[in-house]
Model the fold of this input.
Amino acid sequence: MRRREKSLIIIIIIFLKPIHINASKRSLSSNERNDIIIIILRVNNSALEFPFATKEKGEIVFNSIHVDPPINTSRTTKDLRLEEKIIRAKITAIDARSLRSAVVGLIDSIALVVETVERCER
Done:
C-alpha cells in the first residue's frame, strides 16, 4: 500500500486597504475583493511551493526574487526553481532560528512582488 505524502497548506492574506466587516455582511464587494491579495503556500518535505494563477505571474515573481542571496550564507542556503507556474524553494539552515528567518524573508519578498504586480495590473 502506497503512503500518501502529507503537506501543509498556509494561506497568506494581504489587505491593501482596511476592510470593515460586520456580522450581517456575508460577502465582499468587487472593489473590496480587488484590495485583497491571497497567496497559497504548500509545504512538502521541507520544500516550499508557491503556485500562481498563470505561468507569466510565476515568472515575474521568480525573476524578482531569485537574485536575492540568503541573508547569511554561512548559516542558510536557498535553492529556487520555477516549474511551469509553481515556484519551488528549498531552504536549509544550521539551526531553527536561521531557518525561520530565511523562510519569513522569502515569504515577505514574494508577498511584496505579488502586491506590486497586482497594483500594476489595475
Summary: The chain has one domain: 8-121. The first strand starts at residue 8 and ends at 15.
